[in-house]
Design brief:
By secondary structure, this protein is mainly beta. 11% of the residues lie in helices and 43% in strands. The strands form 3 sheets. A 10-stranded antiparallel beta sheet has the order 5-6-7-8-20-16-15-10-13-12. Strands 4, 9, 11, 14, 17, 18 and 19 form a 7-stranded antiparallel beta sheet that branches. A 3-stranded antiparallel beta sheet has the order 1-2-3, covered by helices on one side.
Length: 348
C-alpha cells in the first residue's frame, strides 16, 4: 500500500473508509457518500481517480467528494431551485441535496471482496413540486481482469450495482440512477458509437474547436480541466462502453486507461436534459455523459452514465443497473492494444 493511499485513508476516517485489494492494486471506498474514492495501481504515484485536494490536506474535516459516486437524475429537477435560475447562473444557484449526497448510507453487507451500502431519501422535483421517496443501494465488488490483455498491463477491476426502489411519491415523479466517475486531466475520453453522431448534445459552454470530435463510430471528448463543457449521447447512439486514456507523465512511456462497460436500453425512459431544453421534457434524455471542469470545482473530468428512470405510476417500482470498470496501466503500446480489444476502436 502506497504512502499516499495510507495518508488518504487516515484523512477520511470520519467517512468510514474500507479497502478492497485485488489485481495489481486496491480501491479506497467510503461508506459516507457511498464513494469509490481512490484507485491505486502498482507503479503509479497517486490515485487514478480524482478527489479534492482538501481530502489530502484537512484530516477529518474536508467534505467527502471525488471518485465514483451515485447521484439521482434529472439534474434540472433536483439541483436548482428553479429552471429559470439554472439557466441564469448554473454555478451560483446549484446545490446538491444533502439527502442525496452524502446521504445517510450504512453498511448492508461486506467482505474482503465487496461492500454493499444503502440509504433512503426523499427528493422534490423543483420543476413540478412532485416528491419521490427511494430506497437506494450500491454494491462495489472486485472482479477478475479481462481475459486476453497484452502482457505487462497491470489492472484493478470492479463491478458496480446501483439499485433504486420507489417507496412512495406523487404520480409522475421520477428518478434515475446517475453514476459519475471523476478523473484527473489530461487525456481523451473515447466513446464508441453505433453510428456517426453528427450533433453531440451540449449542456454548458460551446465545445470549441478541439474538445469534442465525432468520427464514423466514435465520439472523442478531450479532458483538460480548462473549459466548462458537458456532452451527452442517447442510449441508441452509445455502445455502452467508454474509455479514458492518458499518459502517465512521471512513468516514462506508460499510459493509463479506464474502461467502463454499462448497459444502454434504447426506448426506455432516460430523464437527464440540458437546462436549455423545454421545461416540459421528461423523457428522451441521455445515457452517456462526459464533463470537463474549467477549474471552478477543481479542474477534473467526469465519465458518466445513466440507467433508465423509475416513474411513479408508470414504470416498475425497482431497477438495478450494472457496470464493470477496468483500470489499466502499462506501456503505451500495450495499453492502446487493450483499448482496441475492449472498446473496439483505435485511439489517435
Amino acid at each position: 500500500m502506497a504512502e499516499w493511499f495510507k495518508h488518504l485513508q487516515t484523512n477520511v476516517e470520519n467517512h468510514q473508509p474500507k479497502v478492497l485489494a485485488g489485481g495489481a492494486g486496491r480501491l479506497l471506498l467510503t461508506v459516507g457518500g457511498a464513494r469509490v474514492l481512490a484507485c491505486e495501481v502498482e507503479g503509479v504515484e497517486g490515485s487514478l481517480f480524482w478527489h479534492p485536494p482538501a481530502l489530502d490536506q484537512q484530516p477529518g474535516k474536508a467534505k467527502i467528494g471525488g471518485g465514483d459516486r451515485l447521484w439521482i437524475a434529472p439534474e434540472v429537477a433536483y439541483f436548482w431551485p428553479s429552471l429559470e435560475k439554472a439557466r441564469l447562473d448554473p454555478v451560483k444557484y446549484a446545490a446538491v441535496p444533502p439527502q442525496m449526497d452524502p446521504a445517510e448510507y450504512r453498511v448492508v453487507d461486506e467482505s474482503k471482496e465487496h461492500l454493499r451500502v444503502g440509504c433512503g431519501m426523499t427528493l422534490t422535483d423543483a420543476r413540478v413540486s412532485k416528491k419521490i421517496s427511494l430506497k437506494v443501494e450500491r454494491e462495489i465488488r472486485l472482479i477478475a481482469a479481462p481475459q486476453g490483455l497484452p502482457a505487462g498491463v497491470r489492472t484493478v477491476s470492479f463491478a458496480l450495482t446501483n439499485s433504486l426502489q420507489i417507496s412512495g411519491g406523487d404520480a409522475g415523479a421520477l428518478a434515475g440512477a446517475w453514476d459519475i466517475l471523476q478523473v484527473p486531466p489530461t487525456g481523451t475520453l473515447v466513446c464508441p458509437t453505433n453510428f456517426k453522431v453528427d450533433q453531440v448534445r451540449s449542456y454548458y459552454d460551446p465545445f470549441g474547436p478541439k474538445h469534442v470530435s465525432s468520427d464514423e463510430r466514435v465520439v472523442r471528448f478531450w479532458i483538460d480541466g480548462k473549459r466548462r463543457i458537458k456532452m451527452g449521447l442517447k442510449a441508441e447512439a452509445t455502445t455502452g462502453r467508454m474509455g479514458y486514456y492518458r499518459k502517465v507523465e512521471e512513468a516514462g512511456n506508460e499510459s493509463t486507461l479506464i474502461v467502463r462497460v454499462f448497459s444502454p436500453y434504447p426506448g426506455e425512459p432516460y430523464v437527464d436534459f440540458p437546462r436549455s431544453e423545454e421545461a416540459t421534457a421528461r423523457t428522451g434524455g441521455d445515457c452517456l455523459q462526459a464533463y470537463n471542469d474549467d477549474g471552478t470545482f477543481g479542474g477534473f473530468g467526469e465519465m458518466e452514465y445513466h440507467d433508465p428512470a423509475l416513474i411513479v405510476g408508470q414504470t416498475t417500482r425497482a431497477r438495478a443497473g450494472h457496470c464493470v470498470t477496468h483500470v489499466m496501466v502499462g506501456q503505451d503500446q500495450a495499453v492502446r492494444a487493450a483499448g482496441r480489444m475492449l472498446l473496439g476502436v483505435e485511439e489517435k
